[in-house]
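User: Fold this; tokens only.

Assistant: Input:
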Amino acid sequence: MAIALLSPTIARSRAAVINGSTKVVLRLVPELRSQPGEEVAIRAFLTVLAGIFLLSLLSLLVINTALNQDAFVLQRLKHEMNIVNDQRDAILREAAIKASPDTLSVAAIKLGMTPDGAPSFIDVSGVPNK
């Protein structure tokens, strides 16, 4: 029954093939264009795609810059920590040199202190020593 309905279409398509025409006689899907001769604007589509691509690329750039900003701060703080550690080590070395027994005895002599020969003790208990 369906083939009987399509028989005029089949006859026209055979005639088109014999005549060398490239026009399609039977269509399974409707035309995508609303009017004959109207083309889909490929340039507008490519512009939208390029805009989306550039927007995503720009957003990635902003995100990476924000993430790397903390890395610069961290690098600066590490450098400052190294400087402070070097200064602390220098101060500790200087304090160790000044606290050595030889340096302390020289400083005491310069102040006028004299070494005592024999130590003497004070007994506060009141019992005489033998």
